[in-house]
Amino acid sequence: MLSADDIETYFRWIGVRYSIREHPNQEQGWNKGEKEHGIWYNVTLRRAGKKDWKFPFGNSLNAKWNGEEPEISDILENQFICRYTTDSSFYDWCGDMGFDYHETGSKRAYNSSVTSSRRLNDFFSEEELDQLQSDEPLPVAPETSDMVTDYDRSLEESLIFKVNSRLLGYESTSPIIDYDIKILGGT
Fold first, then answer.
1. Rounded distance between C-alpha atoms, residue 1 and residue 72, angstroms
2. Do 128 and 61 fall into the same domain?
């Protein structure tokens, strides 16, 4: 999984913004009636052309005791557990995740996982998910404030466009071409 700093950089490259805010109601724990629990957060991911993705994230009790705030890498790692849930039956999912399929809470957890899987796969492309989950570092971003790169797509009627990239973001002069990380010197 990429580090929190690399995720923030990658999010800028692909146009994702996020917010992590402490939930105003901290009364409810993981399970009803639980008296001591971690801190709940509201997480929102935003991206042009996509529906905002909003979901809760519960930090651990240990993190609460140590005063640790969640990082985007912790939150995404938690969501990535659900990445392939839509490919699993309820019984297979229970076996993989260590749930007892006889317990009523297991079906609720499975349904929540399916919903998260769908949202994750709708919000990010397969390539983006693979990059976010990769242990490989991001390609090196340009160290200059401005850099112009010509990129020729001969297979697409030799469309030439320029990408004006900045250290922490990019702007394309061609709105019809999605940003491709390879433009900035990736593999």
1. 11
2. yes
Instruction: Please report where in the chains the tokens 């996509």 appear, as a residue.
Output: 50
* Domain encompassing residue 157: 147-184
pLDDT tens-digit readout, 45-92: 999 999 999 998 988 888 888 989 999 999 999 899 888 887 889 999
Dihedral of CA atoms 46, 18, 115, 96 in degrees, nearest 10, equals 140
- 175 assigned to some structural domain: yes
**Mean pLDDT across the chain, nearest whole number?**
75
Domain count, the chain: 2
Q: In residues, how long is the chain?
A: 187
Question: Do residues 181 and 13 make contact, with C-beta atoms less than 8 angstroms apart?
Answer: yes
Q: Where are the beta strands (DSSP E) in the chain?
A: 16-22, 40-47, 53-58, 147-153, 159-166, 169-172
Q: Which residues are within 8 A (CB) of 40 and not within 5 positions of it... i.e. 6 or more apart?
A: 22, 23, 25, 26, 28, 56, 57, 58, 59
